Amino acid sequence: MRQFFSVCILALPVLATAQDNLLQYVHPMIGTQRMGHVYPGATSPFGAVQLSPDTDTIPYEVNGKYNPDVYKYCAGYQYDDKTIVGFSHTHFSGTGHSDLGDFLVMPTVGELKLNPGVASQPRSGFRSAFSHATETAEADYYKVRLDDYNILAELTTTTRVGFHQYTFPASDQAHIILDLVHGIYNYEDKNVWTYVRVVNDTLVTGYRQTSGWARTRTVYFAMTFSKPFYQYGARKYDRRQAYHGFWGHFDQNHNFPEQAGRQMRLYFDFRTQEGEKVKLKFALSPVSMEGALLNLRTEIPGWDFEAVKREGQAAWNKELSKVQIDADQDDKENFYTSMYHAFINPTVYMDVDGSYRGLDQQDHKADGFVNYTTFSLWDTHRALHPLFNILEPARNADMIRSMLAHYQQSAEHMLPVWAHYANENWCMSGYHAVSVIADAIAKGNTPSNDFANQALDACIATSTRRSFEGLGAYIDKGYIPSEQDGVSVSSTLEYAYDDWCIAQAAKKLGRMDVYAVYSKRAENYKNVWDPSVGYMRPRLGDGSFRKDFDVLTTNGQGFIEGNAWNYSLYVPHDPKALISLYGGNKRFVQHLDSLFTMELPDKFFAETEDITRDGIIGNYVHGNEPSHHVAYLYDWTDQPWKTQERVRMILKKQYGPRPDGLGGNDDCGQMSAWYIFTALGFYPVAPGSDQYALGSPAVTRASLLLENGKTFTIETDNQGDKNVYVRKVTLNGQPLTRHYITHAEIMNGGKLVFYMSAKH
Amino acid sequence: MRQFFSVCILALPVLATAQDNLLQYVHPMIGTQRMGHVYPGATSPFGAVQLSPDTDTIPYEVNGKYNPDVYKYCAGYQYDDKTIVGFSHTHFSGTGHSDLGDFLVMPTVGELKLNPGVASQPRSGFRSAFSHATETAEADYYKVRLDDYNILAELTTTTRVGFHQYTFPASDQAHIILDLVHGIYNYEDKNVWTYVRVVNDTLVTGYRQTSGWARTRTVYFAMTFSKPFYQYGARKYDRRQAYHGFWGHFDQNHNFPEQAGRQMRLYFDFRTQEGEKVKLKFALSPVSMEGALLNLRTEIPGWDFEAVKREGQAAWNKELSKVQIDADQDDKENFYTSMYHAFINPTVYMDVDGSYRGLDQQDHKADGFVNYTTFSLWDTHRALHPLFNILEPARNADMIRSMLAHYQQSAEHMLPVWAHYANENWCMSGYHAVSVIADAIAKGNTPSNDFANQALDACIATSTRRSFEGLGAYIDKGYIPSEQDGVSVSSTLEYAYDDWCIAQAAKKLGRMDVYAVYSKRAENYKNVWDPSVGYMRPRLGDGSFRKDFDVLTTNGQGFIEGNAWNYSLYVPHDPKALISLYGGNKRFVQHLDSLFTMELPDKFFAETEDITRDGIIGNYVHGNEPSHHVAYLYDWTDQPWKTQERVRMILKKQYGPRPDGLGGNDDCGQMSAWYIFTALGFYPVAPGSDQYALGSPAVTRASLLLENGKTFTIETDNQGDKNVYVRKVTLNGQPLTRHYITHAEIMNGGKLVFYMSAKH
């Protein structure tokens, strides 16, 4: 493993002493192979620009059929690929659905090629061969040699600007291609419109409007070169050329400053000396070309690539330093790479002056907060936002402000479900924004009491939108009839948990009428429990349980991303009651044990999205979030040592400092947040409560440097790979007799000591 | 004729005494049959909204082939059609190219139909039969009964808002359809994107983005109903539905408030009593939905349809009253309908707060002027803008400000050629914006000397853009080689005239260096004159004239919209020199006479766009602008009486108070402006000079009420249909011995008397 990342370790000359330099443990390459769906390129903490190499350009359809490879390329990069098509400016981190890939830039020399070519045919287009041997991926820095052109490409960013540095060979035919056809999740009609204006021989502005996963999305740009191009041109690939005059008033393909259409690529030509660096700054804006220019000039006025890289990496080091751990090298790399992945999303979504495009497709100014987007809430409400409530409380409060703004702009009067770039994607189930809000309220992390009440009102409005998936029936019957909804059980369970969150927030705010209503709704999970089989089960409108039912498969069973085995354990807000449904402690423990140990038939793997034999432990699927709290449920039984054993085993099996080191999609940081909490020894089983269930720390020692100036320290006694069991825990010197700690105990600072043992 | 328009005349109860009511002479229906390309619907003077019935919806292509009928429907309405598809909010007036037709609204009752159907099959869709018997078209008011539904539809407007009043029968199934698929010049890919937000049960906002004739165009709207709809829905017709969630989180086709896609229609349902009026206000904005709402609430706060109509018609009466004429009924109808058509374009292009989208696709605020668009300058520089310099000097100055703003936002650094809605369409030849600017400078009608100099700088920059059609070669060689350009001769001639305009402006501003350069360029017309044949003729790069050359046909002869016969007379700025090219007075007169009297072979009509046997007099084509000055050229010969004879004959032959009363496209008011000038007895042969050539007035008497408070009166002695010859002219009592009057003589007020005779 060392070997693998040696390049990265050597590549940090500009940074401070290795001791406080935590960047050395960050390997963006982790998770770029197979399932992780993360990208290796450059980005700033929560940055609006994610500037990263795309190793292929995948058509959404082949011969009119969906192309399953699209899924592999959610982040644009696959470690096993041999060519790079170019460097695009927007990427999701770890998602299971894709979009973005805007503004692909590619430097080339020699004959001008404007077709990307195909991976199977070397030099068939402008793409270039590359090898990992000449590739470096660090926090906010990426470097690679483009072998076909002998061009060294380096990338770094600020929040809103991508900074490219290309070292060219000597050439009279040096090109920089701006590919506006390229995109991720790229079906034929994705590109809605593109406009480009060549302002002068170093400045180009424009916008790109797409309808991909985000239905109505426009990104504006301003791009400036460190050296004037001596000529430029455009090529269009539209089904029909947009009307723009006749009898050739102008040659509009060559040195013509105004281009528009659906599908186009531009090129800018230079003459370069051997080793000459041509630099390129590329700024994005959600509202206008002027906004992009403002961002460009504000964030990177000069051309000092090294300085921008240094500042970007310093910003990362500051974020990483919020947790200082002692652990072995592998664990440190897993831990700090998880911290890196956790602090990428949500992403900043406004210009430096606060301007952003709202969900109502009108322009707004963020008043007194930073507006964020990329809310993958079905994933991130579980552990990522709770982690922010400890390490990033100010940002988390702004994320909630951003969700409130989304709510106020929503034609459906709902909080975000899966939102990015002024769009609601209606992806996955539940209304988990309420969990994020309730968790912040429970932990006293909202701007004001008024704000908290407004936020609660938004939660109530969202949870009473009867036309939303099955919600009307859920409100009337206490469950979603399976005739109405393919995922009736998981949605019912998730609504019940979300309703409990609303109840907790209401209680905290002294709104007992709301508390009463939602406490009752929180018990709706019971309505889909079939005691005759001991599973949550699809239920028909007439109250009877559906006959055909397979507890192992997911498809058509009333669940999403989880089968009955896993989802039946989804009552995070009341494990005690869940245990009694299962018939008490003994039978519940047996059930959990079987989950982690059973052998699954092969057909299961064929059928279940995202799941491989490594991605699963028995029938426990760590790659899919509905199970993330499950290993901690033993804490509510008489065998909490099994939580300790399981979580340590999951840490080892599902995470590793290798390109294939993520057992599933990182899901905008949720998988990483699970790692961070678990490695520290505790986990938020039910966000919305102020408790964290205790597990078994993987670190030897950790200090959390909190925004309030206090420090919370986790120490271990007799830590070791085999010593996964917790004999005793003390908090500030006093024995802790319960299996949880509270948020207040963390935020007050102090010391939590785990006494480890090889035996339980 | 009376009969035909009787409906209109009866339909003016709300207006003041017939005596000052000039609206009675305005018949928007004139020119709606065949070639006029005008629309009969409602619009305000220079209004941004042109709310008019579309009688068919014409696909741009049929089986992949261009559909020539598209041309007939430039204004959406053809008099001979039997059905109305609906009422859309934007229309060109008299153009020879098409676009617009945005936001078609159609009221229906009974079964909901969302397909427009076809004209040949009654009731095949939502379109309705109608008859001219129940149709009324007035300035800013249109009324028709939709026979299939027994709905009375009435339309009026303010500058930025269309006001619909629908009188329904009793129905439980009353619908108002908003068709966002419909458009004029409507090829499959024209619709780029559409967004609709149902804000509440009376308010809907959104936008429509098209790439038609205008390449990158977005129009925003806000639409409000006088009565809440009880349900609504949308239907999409996209090749592919835009992604918007899965597992039916919502039923997005019914009562779902947020719609987006490329092709969609919406419906809004009501229950109506017999005779119940449902009203609808529809506001447009070039920049935002908020802007449209602002326009809506500012211009029509209430629901009083009659009051809005009354104000709109009063505004028209005010414009029409600027010229008071005595003439017979037909001439009055021709005259005031010409005034009406002349005051429709250019159109206001900004919100009430001055916001508009610039040519640079960024939003701007018009600072201290009204921003206009729809510049059909190849047509309108000839007589329409000169007419504005007399009757609408303030507006004309703002139009020039708008052209300067266009220039400042132009990536090509050029003044508009054919511009509308933040787009340059590069349509037709020349750079005639310089003629409009020079004419205003010559006539002292620019805001300031500084402004005039800026405007001149813009003219110079435009005329030196070497990459613009043949201009580089023109500058180097003094003509455009015919190898380079299919319209090399007409462009050379037009550049020469435009250059003369620049010279005149420079002289007036004391910039004699510029005057010298452009006075020389102004003589370039001589470089395409072939003395061996006595015609302007395509010339090759080597200086020789092109061998194959046919003086009658247009196609491929180096001309646009005019053959060698007509275009060879295009030296408006120096008729004297032109006459000597022709070999002097006698031979020139013979040439002109033949032009007006020769018999043309049939093949000519087959080949020549826009030309029918009625549209032509001999070989003189009044329907195409390059000839508009030709009849006045006799003034420079010893037989000016032939100008008098010809122009009176053209007035009679080419204009009439009938649906087919326009001999050719009105071309945004140019044909009408020719009528107005000629009927008054003078015409601006060379805009850029301060002279108007004298003709033969068709009116008995006319008073021009000028903005400066003065009145210029034209009187005739012994006027009559046969008395077309002018025996004598006096100006303010003094005999006028020249064949022109000056702009100053008009603007100083006074009296011009024509002494008419049946003999010359």
TrEMBL record, chains A, B:
Any GO MF annotation of the entry: peptide-N4-(N-acetyl-beta-glucosaminyl)asparagine amidase activity
Which example biological process does GO assign this protein? glycoprotein catabolic process
Identify the stretch annotated as signal peptide in this record: 1-18
Every copy of the Glycosyl hydrolase family 92 N-terminal domain together lies at 25-285
Q: Which InterPro entries match?
A: 6-hairpin_glycosidase_sf, GH-type_carb-bd, GH92_a_mannosidase_put, GH92_N, Glyco_hydro_92, PNGase
The family database entries (SUPFAM superfamilies) matched by this protein are listed as: Six-hairpin glycosidases
Protein's UniProt keywords contain Cytoplasm: no
PANTHER family according to UniProt: PEPTIDE N-GLYCANASE PNGASE -RELATED, SECRETED PROTEIN
Write the protein's name.
Sugar hydrolase
**Species for this entry:** Puia dinghuensis
Which lineage ranks, top first, belong to the organism behind this chain?
A: Bacteria, Pseudomonadati, Bacteroidota, Chitinophagia, Chitinophagales
